[in-house]
Structure formats: C-alpha cells, structure tokens
C-alpha cells in the first residue's frame, strides 16, 4: 500500500527567511563571533570549574545548622519538647553518632565561639545558653566557612 501525502506548502526564498530571523533577533555588527553550538565534553567540564564537595566536618556543621533552621534553636536544654535543640543537640542530630566528624565539628564550633565571644567558654552548652540566636548563628556560619576553607 502506498500512501501519498500532499503538504501544499509554498516554497520560500531562503534569503528572505534569513532576513526575517535577523530582524527578529538582530546581532550588532561589532559583537564577538558566536561560540560553537556545542562545546566538547572536556572544555565543558573545564569551563564549569571545580565542584565543591564538603568534608565531613563542614557537612556535619552545615547539616546541624539546617536542623536548627528547620526545627528551631533552644537554650537551657538539649531538646525542647517542640523539637528545637541547642547547638550540641543539633550537632548530635546531624552527626548521628559521636564520630570523628562530630568531635571535630564541636571543637571547631567552640573555637569559633571563643574567637567571637571570649576565651573563657569551656563548653558549647554554656556558650549557647549565654547568647542570642543571631550571635549563635554567627558562630555557626563562621565555623562552616572555616571548615570550608580548611577543606575538612
């Protein structure tokens, strides 16, 4: 069986077609030549730059801060009945266990708390309970930045 399809399209002038698109999307005469439509896979990878992969300490700190953002921050107790946590509680929730990343994240957080609020702080809970939410958040953010720069 042979089926014949009649389109009844009118032939166009290719130069007229190109001119119409130039009018719709003009390119300045002094513009740089267009880049190739598709880059080679290697050049695309190189152009994208390196992808940041957080180390275990940075990930623990970031996850703990996200936990605080989601569930709330608390003072004077590890876990508030409504789910908010203090800084240590958030670290524990983020780490899951008291592993090396948990300990190193805690040390870095306390070190940053001492940098911002004085060397007399002996532990995270005491520092946490003595400061405001914005002060605590500032320490968290700085600790995350330090972990990022140290690639830990």
Walk me through the structure.
The chain has 152 residues and is mostly helical. Helices cover 57% and strands 0% of the residues. It is built from 7 helices and no strands. It has helices at 14-24, 41-48, 56-71, 87-95, 100-117, 124-129, 133-150. Helix 3 (56-71) packs across helix 5 (100-117), helix 4 (87-95) packs antiparallel against helix 5 (100-117) and helix 5 crosses helix 7. The chain is elongated, with a radius of gyration of 29 Å. It starts with 13 loop residues before the first helix and ends with a helix. 22% of the residues are buried. The mean pLDDT is 84.
- Compute the average pLDDT: 84
Structural class determined from secondary elements: mainly alpha
Rg (CA only): 29 Å
- Structure annotation, total helices: 7
Ends apart, CA distance between termini: 70 Å
Beta-strand share of residues: under 5%
The largest β sheet comes out as: none
Please bin the fraction of helical residues. Answer: 55-70%
What low-confidence regions span 5 or more consecutive residues with pLDDT below 50?
none
From N to C, what is the helix and strand string?
A: HHHHHHH
Number of strands: 0
Shape, per Cα inertia axes: elongated
Strand and helix layout:
Elements: H1 14-24, H2 41-48, H3 56-71, H4 87-95, H5 100-117, H6 124-129, H7 133-150
List keywords for this structure.
152 residues; mainly alpha; 57% helix; 0% strand; elongated
Summarize the structure.
This protein has 152 residues and is mostly helical. Helices cover 57% and strands 0% of the residues. Helix 3 (56-71) crosses helix 5.
């Amino acid at each position: 069986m042979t089926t014949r399809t009649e389109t009844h399209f009118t032939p166009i002038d290719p130069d007229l077609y190109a001119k119409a698109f130039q009018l719709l999307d003009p390119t300045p005469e002094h513009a740089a030549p267009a880049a190739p439509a598709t880059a080679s896979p290697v050049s695309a990878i190189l152009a994208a730059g390196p992808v940041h992969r957080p180390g275990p300490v940075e990930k623990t700190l970031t996850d703990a801060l996200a936990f605080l953002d989601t569930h709330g921050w608390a003072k004077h107790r590890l876990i508030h009945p409504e789910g908010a946590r203090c800084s240590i509680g958030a670290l524990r929730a983020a780490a899951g266990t008291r592993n090396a990343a948990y300990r190193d994240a805690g040390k870095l957080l306390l070190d940053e708390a001492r940098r911002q609020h004085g060397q007399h702080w002996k532990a995270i809970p005491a520092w946490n309970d003595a400061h405001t939410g914005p002060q605590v958040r500032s320490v968290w953010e700085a600790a995350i930045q330090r972990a990022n720069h140290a690639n830990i």
